[in-house]
Design brief:
alpha/beta; five-stranded parallel β-sheet; 12% strand
């Protein structure tokens, strides 16, 4: 705790009571300031807010309830502990409902006072931490909402992306699933001279191979069965702007050949026509694998890899910039609460522990989903399904284990069932059946 959150203001008009209680709190390690009336205590509180205020209800002039009301107006989150006689207990309970932290009925043992003050100071410390976090977040959003964070890694990334954006070269973005590759691609577009053009995004792994060619290059009416009308492809739509190709490692080799020609000659030839259309665009490709290794293994064209890898941007995984986790979590928590039309919940010690201990294999995307669960009031760190009261059978244990494996792989794959099925060595239809049986939804991990 800081020095401020150790500070206690104790208010009582009886000198002996002030001396005895001040001594008890001082021996417990707190910094104590005593006052004999509410007016002088209020001036001290407003000038330099303490960690907690302990006040007798019955005081000359402004009484303890009046002092509590004035504190509530100045800072509703400052804990106030009321000291009451037996006849005032009902009134004290009403005050607690109005926001008082605790009340102590006279006479009370010194250890009861110390314990209540310690709990109140712990709450105050948490409030102060949350306020500091919110202030840092507001400053970070005001400076740059695209790259939230204070870590050296994110600072270097932000600066590098700004520099590359001005160069107007094709870029290869490298990063794990959920690390924010599209955020980087969007920033490259937004900070470039192409900002007024279209930012056209396409996930190469989300479309069947039979559709990718038409989506990219476009087609004329009648070019193939089902092509009832002309379609402008993503490449042509990105003319004057930026084409973002996510999961480019999923692109079929025959499509890679045609994409290479586009990159080299800056022309596009829609399906069903010999007309060649020039295009002026920047291409940003993103991958979560080592394309150089994929090229060496023959699963990705080496000439396309070399053409794309003019400038590469590597996004650090979240586990390598842990100092940004709390800031990002607060940002996602605010957004989720606004979307669900709720007040953002306070960041609890349990949440903080999970934020600091977890390795975040799903990176920023996983952190965003965690914030959404917290905003909805769901148990953020508990199991996804309730544990049975009786000992689980072998079948139940196997089911839970299977569900956890599938859920973790969906996180790693960003909700892409095809990628998850390949990683698990399971036919896609079988995995879909298991996903349905376990009550999972791939969209939750996109």
């Amino acid at each position: 705790m800081s020095a401020q959150t150790h500070r206690v203001i104790f208010v009582d008009d009886e000198e002996e009571v002030r001396r005895a209680n001040g001594q008890s709190l001082d021996l417990a390690g707190f910094s104590v300031e005593t006052h004999g009336d509410a007016e002088s205590a209020l001036r001290a509180i407003l000038a330099d807010p303490p960690g907690v205020v302990v006040t007798d209800v019955r005081l000359p002039g402004l009484d303890g309830l009046g002092l509590f009301a004035a504190i509530q107006e100045a800072d509703p989150e400052l804990p106030v502990i009321l000291i009451t006689g037996h006849g005032d207990i009902t009134m004290a309970v009403r005050a607690m409902r109005a926001g008082a932290y605790d009340f102590l009925a006279k006479p009370y043992p010194a250890e009861t006072l110390v314990a209540s003050v310690r709990r109140a100071l712990e709450r105050r410390a948490l409030v102060q931490e949350n306020r500091s976090l919110r202030a840092r977040l507001d400053a970070a959003v005001a400076e740059d909402p695209a790259f939230l964070g204070v870590s050296p890694a994110i600072t270097r990334l932000r600066q590098f992306v700004r520099e590359v954006a001005q160069a107007d070269v094709d870029v290869l973005v490298l990063g794990e699933t959920g690390s924010g590759k599209e955020v980087v691609a969007s920033a490259l577009h937004r900070w470039s001279r192409r900002a007024k053009g279209n930012f056209v995004a396409m996930n190469c792994g989300a479309l069947p191979d039979t559709v990718v060619e038409s989506e990219l290059f476009g087609h004329e009416a009648g070019a193939f069965t089902g092509a009832l009308k002309k379609r402008v492809g993503r490449i042509a739509h990105a003319d004057g702007g930026t084409l973002f190709l996510d999961e480019i490692e999923s692109m079929a080799l025959n499509i890679q050949v045609k994409l290479l020609r586009v990159l080299q000659e800056r022309v596009v030839e829609p399906l069903g026509t010999n007309a060649i259309q020039p295009v002026d665009m920047r291409v940003v490709a993103a991958t979560k694998i080592d394309l150089g290794q994929a090229a060496a293994q023959g699963t990705f064209r080496d000439d396309l890899y070399y053409r794309l890898n003019v400038v590469s941007v590597a996004i650090p995984p979240l586990r390598e910039r842990r100092e940004d986790v709390a800031l990002l979590f607060e940002h996602f928590l605010r957004k989720a609460a606004a979307r669900f039309n709720r007040e953002p919940p306070p960041v609890t010690p349990a949440m903080r522990e999970h934020l600091s201990r977890h390795d975040w294999p799903g990176n920023v995307r996983e952190l965003g989903h965690f914030a959404e669960r917290c905003a909805l009031g769901l148990s953020p760190t508990g199991p996804a399904v309730p544990e049975p009261a009786k000992p689980a059978t072998l079948a139940e244990q196997m089911d839970r284990h299977e569900r956890g494996l599938i859920r973790d792989e969906l996180i790693m794959a960003g909700g892409d069932v095809r990628v998850a099925a390949e990683a698990l060595g399971t036919p896609r239809k079988t995995l879909y059946d298991k996903i349905a049986r376990h009550g999972l939804d791939p969209n939750d991990y996109r």
